[in-house]
Amino acid sequence: MKVPSICHSTRASSPLPGFLVFFLTYVHSMESAQFTVVGPDRPVTAVVGEEIVLPCQLTPRMSAENMEVTWFRSERSSFVHRYSDRKDQYEQQMPEYQWRTELLKDGLTQGKVALKILHVRLSDEGQYSCFVQDGAFYEEAQLELKVAASGSAPHMSIEDYQDGGIRVVCRSAGWYPEPEVIWRDLNGQAFPSASLTNSQEANGLYETETSAIIMKNSNRNLSCLVRNTRLSQEKESALSYISDPFFPKVNPWMVSLGMTLVVLLGSFALSVYLFRIKENQAAELSWRKFAFPTGEANVTLDPDTAHPQFVLSEDGKCVRWGETKQPLPDTPERFDTERCVLGREGFTSGRHYWEVEVGVGDGQYWAVGVARESVSRKGGISLSPKGGIWAVQRWWDQFRPLTDLRTPLSLSPPSRIRVCLDCDQGLVTFINAGAETLIFTFPPGSLPGERIRPWIWLWDRNIELHLSPCH
């Protein structure tokens, strides 16, 4: 085999420079760190609205400070996050991740190239690639991110009569993926569901609605449990015992007789049937009205707790928002930031109710409910059970309970609300006093074992709220 000589010529066309380039590139690649990129062996689960860290590790452990780290989704034309030249690079970053990503620098010297994603969205769910390059050498690892959301506490309501019993409906919103819904009796045993509907809202989260039929001779202590299997989290609300007078009184022989009359008497029997429906409707209004028997409370507002911009009537029954702050002493009892006022009266036991009526103008920002005695009065406070407040709120054209998720209720804001407080069971219920229909119930055990006081929040000049005993 003839070997070509390279000793007799030094012209630029000599193969020597090309050989040297290849040799130097090979040597440089040999000098690059040799490693493997390792990701988690199972999907990572993130909660909507929170932050998540996607782990990624070099093995063997070595510093990645001078390497290039890029996190990709399925497409490679743009990236989720890139780190090179010892700093983050944001050019060509995917728009949906701008201002939401960060490579955790603390672990770079140990080979940790973890990515933090802020304010997780449903669209963040999917496959990710952790790509690490050092010189000519590179490796990558794949991982899967799953997203979940835990929705609102179930809202239970007594709707109507059905199949000889009372139909109870359970609603909850803000779940992802589709939740599991279970009815249970007092012993924790599964109770049959009459219907179940899961619907996806515009924001991608799921709303669930299920119903159960409670018969007169069945277990009347029911709870509705909604579970996110991905997070292993669940929320449950319970329905108190329903007494006998609330059930329809229809005897089997009367039903048989009615059917016979329909056949024999035609239109006359139809009239009897329609009268029966009307009677049932009247009975329904009756149990709705007395489903939450309470003791009437003559509530007045406490001027010592009122925000300085509130103007109270002399009898303590009316509150409105004044144009300027009043020169009032800044005592520990007074709200100084949130525009709130408490009732003078406080309750530690028994069952009580009062009404709040919206008057004057068309104000759209107000809330009514109860607060614990120790509710914070200074600075910004959480208008939710976490902050010691249980209430419903009108916010623009929405009406919603003041829970963490602020899920709107599917009803128009009422003009008169009955606030029903049961200190013994630790629950508060809101009723549309005009229509005698249930608005919302915070489940038993929600309230703390301390003194509870009426509470009003007002953020609108065009409105007055009036307190009055219920009749």
Draw up the topology in text:
Layout: H1 16-31, E1 36-38, E2 44-47, E3 52-54, E4 57-59, E5 68-72, E6 81-84, E7 87-89, E8 101-103, E9 115-117, E10 126-134, E11 137-148, E12 155-162, E13 165-175, E14 180-184, E15 190-191, E16 195-200, E17 206-214, E18 222-228, E19 233-239, H2 252-265, H3 267-290, E20 295-296, E21 310-312, E22 318-321, E23 340-342, E24 351-359, E25 365-372, E26 389-395, E27 398-401, E28 416-422, E29 427-432, E30 437-442, E31 452-458, E32 464-468
Parallel strand pairs: 2-11, 20-24
Antiparallel strand pairs: 1-4, 3-9, 5-6, 5-10, 6-7, 8-9, 10-11, 12-13, 13-17, 14-15, 14-18, 16-17, 18-19, 21-22, 22-32, 23-31, 24-28, 24-32, 25-26, 25-31, 26-27, 28-29, 29-30
| Helical run tally | 3
User: Which overall shape is indicated by the principal axes computed on the Cα atoms?
Assistant: globular
Task: Tell me the β content.
Answer: 35-45%
Mean pLDDT: 81
State the separation between the terminal residues, measured CA to CA: 115 Å
Structural class: mainly beta
- Rg over CA atoms: 33 Å
Helix content: 10-25%
**Uncertain parts:** 1-16, 19-30, 250-292
For the sheet with most strands, the description reads:
8 strands, mixed
Number of strands: 32
Search tags:
32 strands; disordered N terminus; mainly beta; single chain; about 475 residues; eight-stranded mixed sheet; six-stranded mixed sheet
Walk me through this protein's architecture.
The chain is mainly beta and 471 residues long. The protein has helices at residues 16-31, 252-265, 267-290, and strands at 36-38, 44-47, 52-54, 57-59, 68-72, 81-84, 87-89, 101-103, 115-117, 126-134, 137-148, 155-162, 165-175, 180-184, 190-191, 195-200, 206-214, 222-228, 233-239, 295-296, 310-312, 318-321, 340-342, 351-359, 365-372, 389-395, 398-401, 416-422, 427-432, 437-442, 452-458, 464-468. Strands 20, 21, 22, 24, 28, 29, 30 and 32 form an eight-stranded mixed β-sheet that branches. A six-stranded mixed β-sheet has the order 2-11-10-5-6-7, with no helix packed on it. The radius of gyration is 33 Å and the shape is globular. Mean pLDDT is 81; it is low at 1-16, 19-30 and 250-292.
